[in-house]
Amino acid sequence: MDVRVNCMRAARLHRIGEVLSLEDIKKPEIESEDDVIIKMRAAGICYSDIHVIDGVISVNTPLTLGHEISGEVYEAGSNTKLKKGEKILVHFMNPCNKCKYCLDGKSMQCINQFNRPEYGFSADGGYAEYCKVNYDRIVRLPDTLPIDFAATLGCAGITAYHAVKSIADINVADSIAIYGTGGVGLYALQIAKACGAKCIAISRSKEKLKFAEELGADYSIDANNIKEVKKVTEGGVDVILDFVVNEESIKNSQKILANGGKIVLVGVSNKPISINPQTFVLKELSILGSLVGSKNELEELVWLASSNRIKSIVKKHYSLEEINIALNELREGKIIGRGCIIFNHQ
Ligand SMILES: [Zn+2]
Ligand SMILES: [Zn+2]
Questions:
Q1: Which residues place a Cβ less than 5 A from the ion ligand 1?
Q2: What ligand is nearest to the CA atom of residue 108?
Q3: Predicted local distance difference test score (pLDDT) of residue 78
């Protein structure tokens, strides 16, 4: 008898600060008629995993990480109306759909969000051969959308989409600075271009700036030469999407914003930053926070991606066994675009 029949391989965090442990654990089972067991096909690798490992985002351990989850339905409870083999993507957050914020269509402000299972953060995620989620979090995928591209829409894509469309509320005449050209920044760039905005990519990495140009950036500027931004805009940028969020990015942002400009903080740093209130008052600036995005937005984004309006940023594949190598490369800034785990089921 195959001893692995009820087991699966998973990459789990046991203690903050440690590498993920690759181990054989029990395969998840249907416990409620709302449950879906996903046979994993692809899991994008996000910098939030590093924040979890470092304790910047707090979680309870042991935990299977991985929140960019895509695959196919393996088993589904009777309430789910899903069929075995259907291609799906997971919206990893879990708003209640009942509080006043959810009812007002602002599910990212849900008061119950952090008390409910979030896959890869407070419930086991997708760095495993199988993953169990509530069917309410499932987005169906068209067959034509590559599965690795789809996985990365689950966090990088949706975070970019929400920041550009719902929080920054970009206009066609706006100039936008994409501060930080990691995975989320590169999707934000493409979405802002699709809205008609002029886009300026800012990074310290020549390679990442080159990729940003390939994806449609109108200008690419080294963070050391921040004054260049003023030369290519009429008095500054209207919106800065800050994916870095540190003292330097905030200081630079205050130098390049146009009157009435907005800074949208997307990176989840927990270190304090300082602003000069006088600059904010005299120029009527605003500073806003942006958290992931709703399931409806994810469905819109899947449509946008399958209509070829945005391109995949996945540049490198890894096996599950290579997860710690991948996370290390991400930490060192060596991954251009997005890295993605691809599952090879026996
Ligand atoms: Zn709610
Ligand atoms: Zn993420």
A1: 95-96, 99, 102, 110
A2: 1
A3: 96
Instruction: Summarize pLDDT for 156-175 with one digit per residue, the tens.
Output: 999 999 999 999 989 889 99
pLDDT for position 2 = 52
**Cα distance between residue 67 and residue 49, in whole Å:** 9
> What domains does the chain contain, in order, with CATH numbers?
7-157+293-342 (3.90.180.10), 169-289 (3.40.50.720)
- CA–centroid distance, 136 to ligand 1, in Å, is 14
Q: Are 231 and 237 in contact (CB under 8 A)?
A: no
pLDDT exceeds 90 at position 229: yes
For residue 294, give the ligand nearest its CA. 1
Task: Report the predicted TM-score, pTM, of the whole model to 2 decimal places.
Answer: 0.95
Ligand nearest to C-alpha 52: 2
Dist. CA 336 → ligand 1 center (Å): 35
Helical H runs in the chain? 47-54, 100-103, 147-152, 158-161, 183-194, 206-214, 228-231, 247-256, 277-282, 295-306, 323-331
Instruction: Give distance in angstroms: CA of 294 to centre of ligand 1.
Output: 11
92 Cα: distance to centroid of ligand 2 (angstroms)? 9
Which pLDDT belongs to residue 179?
A: 97
